Automatic annotation (TrEMBL):
Protein name (record): histidine kinase
UniProt topology in membrane: Multi-pass membrane protein
Catalyzed chemical reaction(s): ATP + protein L-histidine = ADP + protein N-phospho-L-histidine
Alphabetical UniProt keywords: ATP-binding, Cell membrane, Kinase, Membrane, Nucleotide-binding, Phosphoprotein, Transferase, Transmembrane, Transmembrane helix, Two-component regulatory system
Gene3D superfamilies in alphabetical order: 1.10.287.130, Histidine kinase-like ATPase, C-terminal domain, PAS domain
Gene Ontology terms, MF aspect: kinase activity
Transmembrane segments: 6-24, 303-321
Domain of life assignment: Bacteria
Domain Histidine kinase: 391-601
Length: 605
């Protein structure tokens, strides 16, 4: 039998046996842990039931005390007599609370107002509060004994409330006596630190837990009606009632031995082995949890132990085969070693040559990419000049027409020998000629390629230069320009490329307001400690979230005839100088582009 097939059979047998061992171990530990959890929480439930049973009949017994009825009747007495009676009742309730080890005992009238309480002298006294919305009051005022769990509105502490009606001599209900028990007693009787527990109400809302972050969550998703009922009763304050599991109901949850439970402190879910126990006295359900990882740890250890034994057995069995074949393998190795060394040396040499070739190709590609990017920026600039050609023509034609007019007038004046007026016309021609030269020089500077990456630029002056380039379009479209520029702010960017970015943003802002009657563009410049921020906003329709996310993507354009490269190139230019370009919604409507550039310590040469 071939060696590989033998090894495959041995490995396959080992895997099969490992899976079997793992399955049997998982079943054993799952059953054992489930029984242990069930036993532990049943014991906790029985102890808790015993504690609560002690208080179940106490409100009914206390309600027969005639002093409570006197306190209820004292509400119609004069103020001094009523105050004295309430003080006496407060002291009586405080004595009862201390004797019965209760958290608070208080007396409510038929409207649910607290007349007296054992904690009347504390800052969180119940006296004066109305608890008519609590189920323990509504049940007791109808003549029934009641018990209820809730968060205290005044104290904010969890408690279990027992209540009973207070009858007069005609068997009419005139008030309600309530005993509040502090549920910290659960911590006193719980002894299993390795086991987590949860106590929930019949709807599955967790009000007590060994894990604090589970408090006031629901074990299963609650319906809108259930959530409304819980909130109206103020049973758990303003708790979120977020579900800890995705089971559709408590019935489904209780039929499962394992569940994925959400851990708010870790923002993720974890698998737990669980069991539950119904409490007869309180009507609660106690759940016990232990991480499923404990089972898997034991399973893993069992599998590892088996694998170690199995491997040791296999090693013993194949030891003799290795001894026999070792000499033959050594001989074959000596024969082929020199050939393998030579072959691998040749492969390494070829691989080294291929690596150097790849590096050269990478460097060449990077250089070509950088050159292409530079040419693309220049092409975009020239394309922008092409779009501004009409503006350039308008800027130059106006002074040319004026020059012609002055020259024709000069000839007529010369014939009339009005030399002073001829000289004035010639001065106007010279001024117009200088204006044309300035316009041509401005566009010529804009058309040249960018300079060094370490250039220092006067930000305010470059913004003004860009505005001069866009003077004709701004005038033609009747755009109101609002400037707020901080002077002597020098940024680390090439001036020409910075002007190209501003011109592009101005052109986009003008085009965005084609259908707007009151066209406005605003530019602000201010400097922080390390960076300058330039904001350019318009009064157009603005952009939706999809457009803002894609506006810097190549070939995406909001214009029907746009190429979608202008803003992409602007961002690339700013990236080269460690700058950034972002878009936001302007507070007054429209779009707002924000440029951030590092400050330069040196003034431009």
């Amino acid at each position: 039998m071939p060696k590989s097939r033998t090894l495959s059979l041995i490995a396959g047998l080992g895997i099969l046996l490992s899976v079997l061992i793992g399955f049997l171990t998982q079943q054993h530990f799952t059953r054992t842990l489930s029984e242990q959890i069930t036993s532990d929480i049943r014991l906790l439930g029985e102890k808790l039931d015993q504690r609560l049973t002690r208080y179940q009949q106490l409100p009914q017994l206390l309600a027969h005390d005639p002093r409570l009825l006197d306190s209820l009747h004292a509400q119609s007495s004069p103020q001094r007599e009523r105050d004295a009676k309430m003080l006496q009742t407060n002291l009586l309730l405080a004595y009862w609370a201390k004797t019965l080890s209760a958290d608070t005992i208080y007396l409510l009238n038929a409207k649910g107002d607290t007349l007296a309480a054992s904690n009347w002298g504390q800052a969180d006294s119940f006296v004066g509060n109305n608890y008519a919305y609590r189920p323990y009051f509504s049940d007791a005022i109808k003549g029934s004994l009641s018990q209820f769990f809730a968060l205290g509105v005044s104290s904010g502490k969890r408690g279990y409330f027992f209540s009973a009606p207070v009858f007069n001599t005609q068997k009419q209900i005139e008030g309600v006596i309530v005993i509040k028990i502090d549920l910290n007693l659960v911590d006193e009787i719980w002894q299993y630190k390795e086991l987590e527990y949860v106590i929930s109400d019949p709807q599955g809302v967790v009000f007590y837990s060994s894990i604090d972050t589970w408090l006031y969550h629901s074990l299963v998703p609650l319906s809108a009606t259930q959530q409304q009922q819980v909130r109206e009763s103020r049973q758990y304050g303003n708790a979120s009632l977020r579900p800890l599991t995705q089971f559709p109901s408590l019935t489904v949850l209780n039929t499962n031995q394992q569940a994925e439970i959400y851990l708010p402190q870790r923002q993720r879910s974890q698998s737990f082995l669980l069991a539950h126990h119904d409490m007869s006295t309180a009507g609660w359900v106690i759940y016990g949890f232990t991480p499923s990882m404990h089972i898997y740890t034991n399973v893993f250890e069992s599998i590892l132990l088996f694998i170690a034994f199995y491997v040791l057995l296999i090693l013993v069995m194949i030891y003799w085969w290795q001894t026999v074949s070792a000499k033959q393998a050594l001989s074959e190795l000596n024969d082929t070693l020199e050939h393998q060394v030579a072959d691998r040396t040749q492969h390494l040499h070829l691989a080294n040559q291929e690596l150097w070739h790849t590096i050269e190709q990478y460097e060449l590609t990077q250089a070509q990419l950088k050159e292409t990017q530079t040419e693309l920026i220049q092409a975009a600039k020239l394309a922008m000049l092409g779009e501004l050609s009409a503006s350039i023509n308008h800027e130059i034609n106006q002074p040319l027409s004026a020059m012609r007019t002055y020259c024709e007038n000069g000839l007529k004046l010369l014939k009339k020998e009005r030399y002073q007026e001829v000289a004035s016309n010639l001065e106007q021609v010279i001024d117009l000629n200088e204006r044309i030269s300035t316009i041509i020089a401005r566009f010529k500077i804009f058309a040249r390629k960018g300079q060094s990456l370490n250039s220092s630029t006067d930000a305010a002056q470059s913004i003004r230069n860009a505005i001069q380039l866009m003077h004709a379009p701004l005038t033609r479209h009747q755009v109101a320009l609002q400037l707020n520029l901080t002077e002597d702010v020098f940024v680390r960017i090439d001036a020409v490329q910075f002007e190209q970015v501003i011109v592009n943003l101005l052109q986009n802002a003008i085009q965005a307001q084609e259908l707007v009657a009151d066209k406005k563009i605003g530019i602000t410049l201010h400097a922080g400690r390390q960076r300058a921020v330039i904001t350019l906003w318009d009064n157009g329709p603005g952009m939706d979230d999809t457009q803002k996310q894609r506006i810097f993507t190549p070939f995406f354009s909001t214009k029907h005839d746009g190429l979608g490269l202008g803003l992409t190139i602007c961002r690339r230019i700013l990236d080269m100088f460690s700058g950034s370009l972002t878009v936001h919604n302007h507070t007054g409507g429209g779009a707002e582009f924000q440029i951030s550039l590092p400050l330069s310590k040196e003034e431009p040469a």
